[in-house]
Fold these 2 entries.
Entry 1:
Amino acid sequence: MLVAVDCIIFGFDGNDIKLLLVQRGLKPEKGKWSLMGGFLQPAESLEQAANRILKQLTGLEGVYMEQMRAFGEPERDPVERTLSIAYFALIDIHQYEKQLSNEYHPEWFHVKKMPDLIFDHKKMVDIAKRQLRYKAALHPILFELLPSRFTIPQLQILYEGIYDTAFDNRNFSRKVLSTELLIKQKEKDKANSKKGAFYYKLDKRKYKANFQAFLNFIPNPDKLLL
Amino acid sequence: MLVAVDCIIFGFDGNDIKLLLVQRGLKPEKGKWSLMGGFLQPAESLEQAANRILKQLTGLEGVYMEQMRAFGEPERDPVERTLSIAYFALIDIHQYEKQLSNEYHPEWFHVKKMPDLIFDHKKMVDIAKRQLRYKAALHPILFELLPSRFTIPQLQILYEGIYDTAFDNRNFSRKVLSTELLIKQKEKDKANSKKGAFYYKLDKRKYKANFQAFLNFIPNPDKLLL
DNA sequence: CCAAAAGTGTTCTTTGTACACCCATGC
DNA sequence: GCATGGGTGTACAAAGAACACTTTTGG
């Protein structure tokens, strides 16, 4: 039995949440879009494989990544029985763009405008989106998608994209600040408004300490379809 | 590469939360305690394998079960590289006892008084305990551990065991009832108190409909170590 | 009648939500 | 000086937590 690792890679460009896909190099379905994946090597752990695969594609290391689940339907790969362990990763898209272009010719796709994917990769993506919503409602995970310096309105756009809904900006900023995870900077971002919005940075120490304690971030979480 | 499925099976006897373990039949570590597991067969899915293994051990079908995650450290099984997909199951221990005794000679162990386990099974159990706390804080999953008819004080003992803490019984019963997932029965359980506590049954329809919407069940969830 | 668990009522605190209104700035 | 987002203040509503007190019944 073959064991593969597939990576669902999320990015955020300031407006939209996107997924990084590659065109499959092997038959069958050569040329069709696919998640980035690879086979587990004899001496590596699953985490190591996932990080290796992510680095191959993006050049990035130290990225936020977590195991999602295993997919093992007997017929999921029509050629040979292959178990896939899916990981999802959150990357700062601007970090990635410094790196750009490689042998895989990956492309970013808006999560709502995805092409057809091979095998059961669509199912994996759907589960990853659900998982991301779930996790982000409870933990401050979405900061991983932003550059190290960001404004609260930028953060709000990200949350609104994830939950496909609008939040009250006044209550949103208060709620974010009440977590005390953010450190206010002196400079403002003037690109998006005349008044300008202050930049913030994550308090990394508090972020790590409070990672598990970020419940109730999303208003009316019981109305979300998780 | 070998692919195994291991099951972490939780039960509740009315006072304590327990895990069902077996003595390993194969070398190495023959005779040592272990989670119930087995190898994934060529034609079956992971879910099918997990259900097959659970049925082999307990005789039960239709049990609550979910995939936890994959464990793939290269050296986790010293003999041969084996990937394990861990599932956790919640069973009504009394249902199980009707079935009793089989070739595996399983035994229930209190979650806090576990013997040494083979390989990385202790790690799997620790993660399963954490996962169960996490999930139960958000979803009405613990009903799966109770018989179809139960009292609110019984439910409270279960929650207190899971979270290793005490809840205010007055607020607890109100909170449970406010979910409207329970249907009051005419009879009382007189075994545990003089006044007696009313039995309740789960409203299966509402349970399924609201399974995702049970957030904020545990007071102060941010103080829990998840 | 007393002990002991079940359960109701009430109060206070905290958190969430809605929205009026002021602020800073580029044009 | 006015349009545009950024942000504070405030008021009301909902949920959570603490706890006094009543109920039921076996001994």
Note: The radius of gyration of chain A is 19 Å.
Entry 2:
Amino acid sequence: MTHTPGQPDSRAVPAGGRPEPVPCATTPERRPGGRTARVRAQVLDAVRAELGEHGYEGLTVEGVAARAGVHRTTVYRRWEDVGGLLADVLDAAGEDDWEPTDTGSLRGDLTALNDEIQESLVARPSVPRALMAAAFRSARAAEAQQRLWEDRYARCETIVERAVGRGELPARTDARSLLIASTAPLYHQLVLLGTAPDPRLPARAATTATLAAAAGAFGLPVPEE
Amino acid sequence: MTHTPGQPDSRAVPAGGRPEPVPCATTPERRPGGRTARVRAQVLDAVRAELGEHGYEGLTVEGVAARAGVHRTTVYRRWEDVGGLLADVLDAAGEDDWEPTDTGSLRGDLTALNDEIQESLVARPSVPRALMAAAFRSARAAEAQQRLWEDRYARCETIVERAVGRGELPARTDARSLLIASTAPLYHQLVLLGTAPDPRLPARAATTATLAAAAGAFGLPVPEE
DNA sequence: ATCTTAAAGCAACAGATGTCGCACTAGTGG
DNA sequence: CCACTAGTGCGACATCTGTTGCTTTAAGAT
């Protein structure tokens, strides 16, 4: 996850994901060499550090540039604004190897997942929370956020597949809906409602979703009977 | 809901909800008279109008002041910042007489509620969405938002009470958890995940919650058998 | 009517934020 | 080794955002 400065990553991503100024076919890849990649790594590291220290509120282009040892103008030119920075961070966040833990039961898996979510959301300052805040302000960050959600929920579908394999769930189950039903109350209460975190909430939400699933709430074609 | 300019409202609210500069007991109420109230009404109307036209992104103190026909400084002094403005708007929003519609069944009531929610969230620009965005940036707006959520969910508890009265649910049912389970997927998908609105989502989320409730997912003390 | 004073208007200022042209540095290719 | 140039550094500038001291207006009381 953490980029090692000085060891340029080989990903030749167009930095901010913005449309490039039309490479004229003679320049297939602009200049993926040392300095460019190094600056990108420094800046993204700085963003994560600033986010961890001051949260989204305290995240400013000025501060990021200073911490990265880079000039303001460079950041503005490559990432445009704070939203662009976070979009890049979000894309990088999707490149880890996270996967849901296997506890042996659907309810256990969902509870473990919810525990992880709750933990990441109650931390102060919370990076995921900051990224959600950013998604409200920047279209680019919102798109990156969407990609990350999609990736995460796709990985979580293995939870449902395992449950189907164990016979806990019917084969044709809408995995995505089940996962959302299980996790949504957490985000709703912790992020939107702003209620105090309840240590039993993760388990309760997971249990509710499990019960609904057992009652056939997420059956796909519902063969009626 | 809409304030009629020129007809000062009698609510002697301390405007922004901020701690007042200690009234010296000789001045029990500062100056609730015409101009003060009129300015407040003008400004709040301007906020709602700007929000409807440009969304949260385009909401600026400068624009609000101009539209309200008031000087910038006045807005800064009474509301401090955009968050303060929205907090005041949020508090005013809680003073309506909204109540959940009665369709005759738990599932129907929850579906109707979700339909209303979805409708308010897919509108562009969406005022509720703007208020949520504001809650991320301003502590004052966040508190006001919290008060509004609390008020809304409290009113919705009548849905559960009616269902209990009809014998659809056991007497000891955790109304709040049921309501959150029913509504959270909507907010999660439309606000956080940013997925395209699905016209059947409200009904499906309501059905899921109803099934879970029937399975005893929201029983309060659970007398064990 | 007139006095008092809370609140609004006004203008000048300070700081943050973002932009632009130009110079320079350092990969890249000959 | 040298030439080329994408990308960065630098400083000057424009703008937006928020603050402060003072003046003016008008609500409320005598």
Note: Residues 1-29 of chain B have pLDDT under 50 and may be disordered.
